[in-house]
Each structure stands twice: as structure tokens, then as C-alpha cells.
Amino acid sequence: MEPAERAALVENALAILRENDRGAYTVPTRGLYPFQWNWDSCLTALGLGHHDEDRAWREIETLFGHQWPDGMVPHIVFHVPDDGYFPGPDVWRTKRPVPTSGITQPAVAGFAVRRLFERARDPAMAAARARPLLAAIDRWHQWFFAHRDPAGEGLVAIIHPWESGRDNSIDWDEALARVPRDGIEPYARRDLQHADAAHRPTDADYDRFVWLLERFRGLGWDNARLHDASPFQVVDPGFNAILIRSCHDLAALAERLGDDELAARNRAFAERGLAALESLWSEAAGQYLACDRTTGRLVESCSIGGLLAAFAPIPARRAEALGRRIAALGERAGHLVPSHDPADARFDARRYWRGPIWLICNYMIADGLAAAGEDVIARRIGADSIDLIGKSGFAEYYDPLTAEPCGGGRFTWTAAMVLEFLKTTGEQPGDRG
Ligand code: GLC
């Protein structure tokens, strides 16, 4: 890429981060998502860190300032009222001092904090900022295994599709169909005022999302009861891989900072998780698949959830197979990595998590594959990501067949990931030690 072109991309990405900065946290995009989202913030911190380390740490500190007493870190923090979003605090009713949602999101904080720490230009400042976060993230990890893996299988379940971060993935269709739609309070969607309905989840999906929310609210958001009471319990390989990677990275960081007990606990979580992840491998599909915990069966749905497993330190032969699988997807899609296999009749090129490309997934997959020595495919994913931005700007997600921008515009984590991809071009990304 020409230096001028690169400089323009960086300038644009920084402008988006500034535009969406609310001082101590960043909103994903104006209008559509006016609050702080959990995994958005952790990944955004990496982008912020290139130019302002203090601000990067603050992004994650703000999120953890709203950790629940039981250890959960909520998926949304409603810092300031804004009635442009549904469901808002009046629907969640979690009774937190600053309102939050009542469910969680992919646990990418352990990874983000280690990376910020290792890149820090001021190691003393980084150590001082990392220590309290280390303890808070460890509490969150313990919360996951206590409340989302009550039988001690080594893998956690999500109990709401929103927890996965991949809201309307085809992976959830079967389990979600068992969730009722009736008896919910009347509501009005707000997302359709900001984005094209053809790019968003359907009304049937939304009814069920709301039904689950009301079910959990009816149980007083008591996490000791929610897992078993949920008709939706799915073990997502992507979600677990992110948690495993974060446990692994937190352990490495704790060792550096001299907390051996915390390191040993997180190392054990990661090892147990990795061993259990094997049960989600499908030889026929050539990738990992989700498992419906209520039926005990693997879900026949080749989505990006199974490819995100590459983010965890999986065995080399698995990383190699995922690399092959992604290369095959590249023959069916103009750009990598589609969130669902275009060969599947249920694939929908523009509908949110049922086909489109998301740069955060590209980043995590490329990082893991590079660490596993799968450099060629990792570089292709990075190049495709930058190419998409050049063609279609900083959108929320992209049609993998036409590169058309979809969803919201001027999107924070897309901008952060571009800074990351540009930074790691030509370097060795994915050092996970
Ligand atoms: C959507 C995405 C989710 C993200 C949120 C804010 O709900 O599915 O992953 O965290 O938007 O960007």
C-alpha cells in the first residue's frame, strides 16, 4: 500500500475513534449504539493504545468499574440516558447503581490487557494499571465457570444469543425456536430507525430475545439460577475460545506480575477448556461446531463461531485444518471471512451475523492463525480486511460477496481493528507465548 493511502486510513480511523469517544468510554457508533459495550470496548482499547495508552487503559477500567458483585461484567453499561436504543435500562431493570444489562459478552479483556501491557511504552504505568484489572478479570473468569458451567464440563454456555456477540447467527436457530414468543410486554424496536431492516435480525428473533430477557428478569437476575432456568443453553466454540485465550493470557500476565495463584487458576481453566473444546470438533465439517447443551447434540451450522476457535492455542493440526477451511471459503466469497458458509442455503450475505464479514472476527482469527504458524492465510485475512475498508469505508459489517458496507457507519471497533491490522502488517502478530 502507498504510504499516502496508509496515512489516510490511519487518519480516518483516528477521526472515528475521536468522534465516538465519550471521555472515559467509546460508543460503538452514534445513534444505533449510544452506550458502552463490553467486547467492543476491550477491542477498541487496542486501537486507542497506539496513540494514547492512558486512554486505552481507561476504556477497560471504565467497563470493569461496572462489574457486578458476583463477578459478571455486563454486556452494556448505560452511562447516560438515551431513548434511541431498545432494550434500555427500563426493560432490563437490573437495579445497578449505573444501569447495565443483565447478561455478559465474549471475555476478550484478558487478551486485550496482556497485549496492552506487552506493548506499553511506559512499563511502570502499565504494571500499575494492569494489576487491579488482573484481579477483576480473574473474578469474571471464575464467575463464568461457576455460573455458566455448573456441571464442570470445562466449557461455558451462553444463555442468550446476545451474549455470544453474534446475535442472530444461524447457530442459534434451532435452540431459539424452542424459546416462546408469546406473553412478552409490547415493545418497539429502535434499531430499524438507524439501519436497513434487511441487514438486521427479524422480528421473530427479537421477540425471543425479549422473552429470554423477561425470563431472567423474573428470576431477579440471580446468576445462580439463570443457567438452569434458560431454555437456551448453547456452547459456542468461538465464545469459549475467546475465554480460553483470555485465561491463557491472564495467566501469562499474572506470572510476569508475580501472582502465582491467579496464574495457576487461569492456566488450569485454559487447559481444561482446550481439552473439552475437542468435543466440538467435527471431522465432516472440517471445523468446530456449537453444541446445544439442552439436547447434547452438535449444531449442524458452519459459522464463524467454529473458526474463531483459532484464537485459542488449539493443537497445530486443528489450526491447519481451520486454515484450509477458511481458504475454501475464500473460493466462495470475494473477501474473507464470511460469518457463515455461503454454500449453506441459510446464508444471507447482508443480514448481520448470517453471512457478513466483521473485522473483529477477522482480527482474532488472523491473530490465532499467525501464532500457529499459518502465516499465508493469516496475511490473506489481513489484506482482505484492509481492502474492504478501502472499497467500502468503516462500516459495521460487509457483504462478503460484493463488499457492500452494511449496518451502522463510522464504526468504532472497525476503526480500531484497521489500526491493528496496519500496525501488525509486516510484523509478527499473534505472539501468545
Ligand atoms: C451488536 C453486535 C455485538 C456488538 C454490539 C455493539 O449487537 O452483534 O457483537 O457488541 O452490536 O457493537
Quick rundown:
Helix content is 50%, strand content 4%. The protein has 433 residues and is mainly α.
Characterization of this structure:
The chain has helices at residues 3-19, 38-49, 53-64, 89-92, 109-119, 123-147, 161-164, 173-177, 203-218, 223-229, 237-256, 260-277, 304-307, 316-332, 359-371, 375-392, 412-424, and strands at residues 36-37, 76-77, 234-235, 281-282, 287-288, 291-292, 297-298, 397-398, 405-406. The protein is mainly α and 433 residues long. The chain has a single domain (3-423), classed as Glycosyltransferase (Alpha/alpha barrel). Strands 3-6-7 form a three-stranded antiparallel sheet. Strands 1-2 form a two-stranded antiparallel ribbon. Helix 1 (3-19) runs antiparallel to helix 17 (412-424) and helix 2 (38-49) runs parallel beside helix 5. The longest helix has 25 residues, at 123-147. The chain is globular and about 60 Å long. It starts with a helix and ends in a 9-residue tail after the last helix. Alpha-D-glucopyranose binds at residues 28, 33, 37, 39-40, 165, 167. Alpha-D-glucopyranose (GLC) is lined by residues 28, 33, 37, 39-40, 165, 167.
